[in-house]
Design brief:
The chain is of the alpha/beta class. Helix content is about 20%, strand content about 15%. The protein folds into two domains: about 35-175 and about 250-430, Alkaline Phosphatase, subunit A (3-Layer(aba) Sandwich); about 435-505, Arylsulfatase, C-terminal domain (2-Layer Sandwich), CATH 3.30.1120.10.
């Protein structure tokens, strides 16, 4: 079914979408001066139950809890996907990542996934007069063609709506293990050029985790057995750039300081800061001052470090008198994972801690544990503290902020981003009408129901694979009782609705 030529009313009818209170809200703030600064704190691999305000007791997160006590804690908010690159792509573009090839978990030397010229969340903020920055983990590719890390890497975030960037180019467990600021490797000695390969060793004499385990301070469990940097073996091979290589224990300090410097520099204007933490992604190597703060080992201690990073942002805003008129959004790119490639006692020392509470599934799974994440919105000047059960997704920030800043998205922009501004501000208990979840295959949440499509990859391999699944989340949040056989009518309705979303190429009215 093609959407070209359809009126908005016809499109809504074809999709079976009911507008909620926040959809197509024509109200914008009366004066530009009412617009807040926006700080988006995007944690990595943090689960629904990993922080205090969502039930954690084995680890203390007073700063994250403080945001929740002063804002709205969402209980039915989701990352757009169950893994990092797809979630980040969808959040910044307003498009489900399943619609675009090449949005799977990106390699450390992947090319820029979001192409220059595309309307993005930061470009929307730029148009509204905001200065924009991303500090921390990127993992959306950089440059084009074969990347030369010894020169300015372009395109980069500044080509898709950011005014400034300081990046961990991919992830902490992937080479190159260097920081990138304004397109250039920080602290690079030109006499020691960087080379990166994901096809095989660059220098046969370069030690690896597989061949030289005696050099490791953290052992790998699977996959992370190539070039050793700071006593930790990574995915991929790297040579050179010795002076520029990061020290994992200092990473949280480095990116938090950069984020605070950015806030200080732009305190007299209006800014949008996307602060993308590395914690609690592997390798989990918190600074010494956080080691032993929990009984859970590195994973628990990394959560404490993440909370400290959050606290530093809060202190900076308060010191500068910006707290009351700053919207802070705290969330995570997907659900939790324990052993993700390193022997860091994450399973052995878990104890009674429940990273995803009672939810089924983990990172990379289609169940609620894979995408239902902490999502907190605070803006002391405008938002009253409370809890919301509204269905929300990070992909909705684009349309919601467009409304907040008095802009109207072009039809082709943010095709899956819904305006849920009223829900974010606590003015409505309703969020989006429905939501597609993404792992290897897709799910659909609509009302109390969740449909999970079959794992077609298993069928292609000649295996039995999964089948259609149907759950009533209101009665069965742990997705234990599959109702697909008992409710064939609802199964058919949900299956057909998801099929329309896939073939229409968009879901935003």
């Amino acid at each position: 079914m093609k959407t070209a030529g359809l009126s908005r009313r016809s499109f809504l009818k074809a999709m079976g979408i009911t507008l909620t209170a926040g959809s197509f809200n024509s109200r914008v703030f009366a004066a530009k001066e009412e617009l807040p600064n926006v700080v988006l704190i995007y944690a990595d691999d943090l689960g629904y139950g990993d922080v205090g305000c969502y039930g954690a007791t084995a680890v203390k997160t007073p700063n994250i809890d403080k945001i929740a006590s002063e804002g709205i804690r969402f209980t039915n908010a989701h990352s757009p996907a169950a893994t990092c690159t797809p979630s980040r792509y969808a959040m910044l573009t307003g498009e489900y990542s399943f619609r675009k090839k090449g949005t799977g978990i990106a390699s450390g030397n992947a090319n820029m996934i979001i192409k220059p010229g595309r309307t993005t969340l930061p470009s929307i903020m730029q148009k509204a007069g905001y200065n924009t920055a991303v500090v921390g983990k990127w993992h959306l590719g950089l440059g084009e063609g074969k990347i030369d890390w010894n020169k300015e890497v372009k395109p980069n975030p500044n080509d898709i709506g950011f005014d400034y960037h300081f990046l961990i180019p991919a992830t902490g467990d992937r080479v190159p293990c260097v920081y990138l600021e304004e397109g250039k490797v920080v602290g690079l000695d030109p006499k020691d050029p960087i080379k990166v390969s994901y096809r095989g060793p660059i220098d046969k004499d370069e030690p690896t985790g597989k061949s030289n385990p005696e050099l490791l301070k953290m052992k790998w469990s699977h996959g992370h057995n190539a070039t050793i940097v700071n006593g930790i073996s990574r995915i991929g091979h790297m040579s050179g750039g010795k002076a520029a290589r990061w020290v994992d224990e200092d990473m949280a300090d480095v990116i938090t300081e950069k984020a605070c410097e950015y806030i200080e520099k732009h305190k007299d204007g209006r800014f949008f800061l996307y602060f993308s933490t590395h914690d609690i992604h592997v390798p989990r190597v918190p600074h010494q001052r956080f080691v032993g703060k929990t009984d859970m080992g590195p994973r628990g201690d990394a959560i404490v470090q993440l909370d400290w990073c959050t606290g530093e942002i809060l202190k900076k805003l308060e010191k500068l008198g910006l707290k009351d008129n700053t919207m802070i959004i705290f969330t995570s790119d997907n659900g939790p994972v324990l052993d993700d490639g390193y022997k860091d006692y994450s399973v052995k020392r878990l104890g009674d801690h429940k990273p995803k509470n009672e939810l089924r599934g983990w990172k990379a799974t289609i169940y609620e544990g894979g995408t239902r994440v902490p999502f907190i919105v605070s803006w002391p000047e405008k938002i009253k503290a409370g809890k919301s059960d509204a269905l929300a997704c990070q992909i909705d920030l684009m349309a919601s902020f467009a409304n907040m800043t008095g802009q109207k998205l072009a039809y082709e922009d943010g095709p899956d981003s819904f305006d849920i501004l009223d829900a974010l501000l606590g003015k409505s208990k309703k969020g989006r009408d429905h939501l597609v979840g993404h792992s290897r295959y897709l799910s659909l949440i609509k009302g109390d129901w969740k449909y999970i499509e079959p794992d077609t990859r298993q069928w292609r391999k000649g295996k039995k694979g999964s089948k259609d699944q149907l759950y009533n989340l209101k009665e069965d949040i742990i997705e234990k009782n599959d109702l697909s056989k008992k409710r064939p009518d609802k199964l058919k309705e949900m299956r057909e609705f998801l099929a329309k979303i896939k073939t229409n190429g968009r879901s935003r009215p």
